Amino acid sequence: MANENIPAVTDTILNFIGGAYRRGSTGKTFDNFAPATGLRIGTVHEASEADVADAVAAAKAALNGPWGKMTTAERVRLITAVAAEIERRADDFLAAEVADTGKPRHVASHIDIPRGAANFRMFADVISTTPTESFATATPDGGKALNYVVRKPKGVIAVICPWNFPLLLMTWKVGPALACGNTVVVKPSEETPRTAALLGEVMNAVGMPEGVYNVVHGFGAGSAGEFLTSNPDIDAITFTGETGTGQAIMQKAAVGVRDISFELGGKNPAVVFADADLDKVVEGLSRSVFLNTGQVCLGTERVYVERPVFDEFVKRMTVAAKAFKPGATGDPAYLGPLISAEHQEKVLGYYARAVAEGATVVTGGGVPAISGDEAGGFYVEPTLWTGLAHDSSVMREEIFGPCCGVIPFDAEDEVIGLANDTDYGLCATIWTENLSRAHRVAVSMQVGVCWVNCWFLRDLRTAFGGSGHSGIGREGGVHSLEFYTETENICVKL
């Protein structure tokens, strides 16, 4: 039953189906914890299989209702209004995001919330300005034909989101999906349900038709995630998260031959040449290793440094690591918590394994001393290792924490081989002042994104995605249109 008078986000977090907030039909709930304190801060209503079916049915009905009859210009006006309403309610979204993730407010206020709005605005521009192709074709009888392409919405899209950038990565998918005329059912991470729920209020405020945007809460196997990916009326599935989960979703998508777009894990390398500007390098890598406490799919966990500057790099990077303080405040000098006690245990397990595999712990390696309300938070120390073998498990498996192993190299060909010797292929960073080398090495990286003398510098119009175990497909700008639309060629004999 709908509960339209209940706020989206208080200490009770509800599903959003067909334009209304709803409790789970079975009454099952689960706890929402604050990573910064370890305290319970809310109750989330878990969607049953029947609730998920209702959400998919509402999304399917919207395709045949007012939403499906809108012109592109009408959809663009609504989507642009969504962006403006997110900006108007930035403080509400910031509070929800910080509560769920524990990340320092300066991170969420400068990255998560602005990008959440920008994703809608940018894809509204893309769908308004991207042309389709047409060809004048000679026919066997000496005449002509006109071939032209039209783009159609793919249908109901299942959007399964991660917990590290909940609003940003959810709207990165919902924005283009709606711009292309699809409807969505979003399954946010069970760790971070608040901003997805809150976005339902925005959709209602701007007049988005019922069923265009839906949210179901729960877990993976045996819960909302499995119910959603197994539903035969889902036309495509987009997922960002861990590689093993992606493989499980891929098996579900095979039934009915549904399209998929995956951005998965990474074990991303940085290559630092001796001619690099070490001030730039340390500034860049202190972000790529430690931003969001290392919980960034594009983060750096492997650093290869040319031998002449190895010791100096380690010295400077150690100073940068030690400058961080544990805590979730508005101060950029603070490093927030990991997302959960479970993830903290995983990261600390790798810290112990690194020592067992022969690492020298240059700095960090444990849990920081912290007092007050945050004493129960899920914090770990920023950590640097040297002495690890390239083929050690710590240098090959994704950790997703504020840590990296630093290994020296002697030759360009050697380090290209080391950087590419991985199952993953999401991104890499190259640090050198030699322009020819920068181009030469960058094109040799077997990744979806390669940065030179920078990191996390994004133009949302460019292709984004990974290779190998890091994903399938590309999103961003016109590349998103390939996934979120079906193209039909129409041939007219003239």
Characterize this entry briefly.
The protein has about 500 residues and is α/β, with parallel strands linked by helices. It has helices spanning about 50-65, 65-70, 70-90, 90-100, 105-130, 165-180, 195-205, 225-230, 245-255, 280-290, 310-320, 340-355, 410-420, 435-445, 480-485, and strands spanning about 10-15, 15, 20, 30-35, 40-45, 135-140, 145-155, 155-160, 185, 215, 235-240, 260-265, 270, 300-305, 325, 335, 360-365, 385, 405-410, 425-430, 450, 470, 485-494.
Characteristics of this structure?
seven-stranded mixed beta sheet, 494 residues, alpha/beta, disordered N terminus, six-stranded mixed beta sheet
Element layout with pairings:
Blueprint: E1 12-13, E2 15-17, E3 20-22, E4 29-33, E5 40-45, H1 49-63, H2 66-69, H3 72-88, H4 90-101, H5 105-129, E6 134-138, E7 144-153, E8 156-160, H6 166-179, E9 183-187, H7 194-206, E10 213-215, H8 224-230, E11 236-240, H9 243-254, E12 259-263, E13 268-272, H10 278-290, E14 300-306, H11 310-322, E15 325-326, E16 334-335, H12 341-356, E17 360-363, E18 383-386, E19 403-409, H13 412-420, E20 427-431, H14 435-444, E21 449-452, E22 471-472, H15 478-484, E23 485-493
Helix pairs in contact: 3-5, 3-7, 4-5, 5-6, 10-11
